[in-house]
What we know:
about 450 residues, alpha/beta, seven-stranded mixed sheet, about 10% strand, elongated
Amino acid sequence: MECVPCVRNVRFRALQKALLCLCFITFLLLFVINREQILQRVAHSFPAINPSYYELTVVLGNLEDTRRHTFAPNKSLKVATQESEIPIKSNKETKVLPVLTNKRTEQLESAKHSKTNTKPPTVTAKASRITSNHSRIIKSPNVPRNSSGIIESSRVTKENSEKAREISTTFSYLGDAYGWDNTYLNSSCPNRTREKLRSDTFNGTFVKDIPILQWKKHAILSEYQRLKRYLGTYGWKGVTWQVLNETLNLLNSSHSGYLFDTWKGHSPCVRCAVVGNGGILNNSGMGAEIDGHDYVFRVNGAITEGHENDVGKRTSFFFFSTNTLFNSLYAYKKYGFHKIPHSQETRFLLLPDHDRDYLLVRAALTNSVIDRGRDKGKRPSNYFGSNLTTEHFKILHPDFMRYLRNRYLWDPIINTKNRDIYRPTTGASMLLLAVHTCDQSRPG
């Protein structure tokens, strides 16, 4: 009889241990499920001791000047920092790494070494021109260029170097650092739409020299290394160097780096009409006014036949991705959309979000069939027509799409593990593209 309490005690202790283990396992599961929210709260509470969220951008000497710009839309992610540059010498090029120093840490270091006189190192850097030697650049008389025929990035100056120091860190997956292209800064139009983006209304989100298009001059390994970490339309992750290099080197004319290669310069302002597919123009009678612009943008299921009085009939730019192209041909077929707009003035403006987009352009410009992937065996000439030239295709730059997402088309999903499935719509991207390139834009 004396052993009965002992047995009960043993069972009670065993049950107690089992409950403790169950509670511990439950706690671990809750932590794993909510780890992103917990880490973000910790990051915001202790920014000075959380360097893992700082993004260090490598600037290669033969790249366009890559700078970090102030990230305005999501202010909760901002950690005020200052930037200094440390040169690292190698055999062939100089890498400049921005060193991000948190203000709190900087104050502690300053107090610690207050008795030591130090002078900051002087760093000078020259932006090298992006060139490639294995294919010839075809000069265009309508595009601003230098003596070599290449639209060249602006040089590093004291002014833009000082501006580059006014930065904020963001989570590294956002990639809020971009190349540098001054192609659209030479307009003499007195009342440009893009100038309104520089106002206080947009809180510093506008970047005047953001790269818009990608072409032959971007087909270099160092640029590929910079952008291959970003997935989909935001970079070249998932696109092999061979496919990218072959495709971009087919875009070997300076026309490929400038949207308005047919501009005749009759007036100082390039006027654009941006036409969507929402049906708002039904019975509007605005067709003639739309066609009266210098350039007309259309997207995806761009139905004009039978509706010319309302939407016009001209198509200067057909904006699409490979995915939206085939989806539109299927979904809008019952409404009369049997083929994409095609005329002598039409340029095909591609928003790439997969390697299939680059494979499509490569096959189109070589008048061949797509040789791999989900579109294997398809012939692009069946959709775009035959006798295609380099000037017919223009491809948006990944930096531009990341810039649009980060600063104008932000969505809370970007801060979650499902961020890779988010992409701005083709319609919104087309409108913002027109605003950044045209002197005067009118949506319809």
